[in-house]
Amino acid sequence: MTLEFPKLTLEGILELAENPCPTCELSKMSSYEYNVLNERIDKMIKHNPVDGKLFTKLMRLKSFLMLEV
Fold first, then answer.
1. Torsions phi, psi of 61, nearest 5?
2. What are the sequence ranges of the domains in the chain?
3. 12, 3 in Cβ contact below 8 A?
4. pTM of the predicted model, to two decimals?
């Protein structure tokens, strides 16, 4: 399955995390892309040291993902 949503790159995920309400962007994604984004966020948190603000933003993005599914 191909990923069509352009925000699944590292830069795109960081941009989504900076958005205070990313639901309009997330509504364009397929359920498969939700899963991929969720996995990539998990990898970012586990494999890269992130500061507290970025961690909070990434976790907020994960909560928006849970609401959209």
1. -60, -40
2. 7-68
3. no
4. 0.79
